Amino acid sequence: MAAVAGRPYLLLMDDPARPFDRRLLRLRRARAARALRNGSFLHEEIAVRLLDRLDDIRRPLGRVLDLGSGCPRLVQALRTRE
User: Fold this and answer.
1) Which of 9, 19, 68, 79 yields a CA-CA distance of 20 to 30 A from 55?
2) Computed from CA positions of residues 46, 52, 58, 61, in that sequence, does the dihedral angle turn out positive or negative?
3) Domains in the chain: boundaries
4) pLDDT of residue 63
5) How far is residue 63's CA from residue 79's CA, in Å, rounded to a whole number?
């Protein structure tokens, strides 16, 4: 793949049969993982606020589905909740 002049983040596809550059995907995933670790304080704050709001609900909640919150503390707190 060739980069567009002056914009290395824009890549032109040289081989239409190979739409994904696996090396580039690995690099992007690694960068996203680092960013997630650096931004985990936001996940923690959201978890605290969510749990605080759930304390105001009086009726018992049956099941809770976590669709990738990325916050183990939240998942554990929801599991131990009665």
Assistant:
1) 68
2) positive
3) 2-80
4) 82
5) 9
